Give the backbone structure.
Amino acid sequence: MSSTKYRFGWLMVLTLLLLGVLAACGDSSTATPAPKTTPATTAPATTVVEATSTPVALANLPTSTPAPTATAPITTGTLTTTPATTIAATLVPRPVPAGLPGKLSLIGNDGQLYLYKFDGKKPQLILGKAGDDPYKTGDGQIFTFPTWSKDGSKLAVLSSTFKTGTTVSSDIYVVSADGSNPYKVRDGAAAGGVYLNFSPDGSALTMLVGGGDALELQLADTSPTASAKPPQTRTLSQGRPLYTSWSPDNDNLIIHTTNTGTETLSVLSTKNPNAKAVDLPGKPGSFRAPAWSGDGQRLAYSVVAAKKGDPETLIIAGKDGKEQARLDITELGSPSFNWSPDGKILVYATQSAPQSYYRSLYLTDGSGGSKATSTRVLNGTVFGFFWSPDGKKIAYASINSNGNFFTWNIYDIAANKSTLLVEWIPTEATQQILGYFDQYAQSDSFWSPDSKYLVFCGWDKAAIDQSASQDTPFVYILPTEGPTIGQAYIADYGELAFWSK
């Protein structure tokens, strides 16, 4: 699964990736499969995020942040959670232990879709053609952003077919977890897919599709009989940007969007095609994802400040949309947030104006009274955070003290302890997940089902130290506890991987 598209000077790539995280991303133009090469002297002024998979635009973020260099790395804050621990393990390449829970969807460096089963065998090709590499030839089919159903029984994935470097077809596939019975829920469209998310029961799939100023949120049938029918879809909403959150009972979506200049935050029934959206009270805050709690009893969203220049307010409402509690953000900036799996704790961070990274992590009792309170558990730079399935830990991406590597860190809630596990550089696809982590956290998982491992793609510090350039990124399995904590295994080569049950 190797390719030549990843030849680069590693520090320049970090520069570009940081620009990608810090810059505004809103275009939906179609990327070509041409090899990605990075000049070693000049950083482009635009983001390196692949626009075919950009889900939504960040909220008015500046694009003029100076690029870090070897002599002037960026400085964005210091991790000060107490107590703090650093795991300074050097990577020793070794095979992943067999028998880990669940399985991985894996986009290889050749753009094909693979399945990794932790059975001691190489990844299994499930969509695409062995030996094809459209990044080299400009012809063929590539797959991006695979998304598992919540029970791990099926997988949806975006696809683009190219001829001489030009997109000729954009499709969306659903395939069984064992790689059998692939079928299309979107066939031969001109505009590409952007973001996918299964309903909690896996019977339906929301698909954000389109380009330019027009995005559509479509609903596709993925029930057991869907593969025997032509694609069954209907349009739920239009606008740009567009964020969503499924209710755990599969019946409703929160939709946050702007259409013809009107911004709305509303709840829409997915079961009744004639139902009208019900607007939530208050003027919506910055464009980040709303979030339904895992127990289905509450939802969270932000509203604009009562007075210009004040922080936004986080609203916790019941499933009927009626406000139950509000949290006045103490730091200026726009909050991004996600519920713990049991729906009892809301974690949030604020966007550090005028820059686009986040600072500090706060934990809030989501079932509190009318005036919710929060506790700051981390003071530092955050690029994205993800709950472990057991709700006991939060994985978050930050940056090291020298400003030249991203870091994976684990915050243990019970111990009130933050541990730096590894320094690394993410692939472009992984970097995009970090850029829109609050939305992707609702559809995809870096965590293993038993909450003991993380999967990520890129280059760890040891790999970079061993060579000034690398042809291909690695797929890492990172223990987050136990005697091998922070000592990553190398599963294979790949651009993006997600874990299923």
Remarks:
- Helices lie at 10-22, 134-137, 428-435, 437-440, 461-466.
- The radius of gyration is 21 Å.
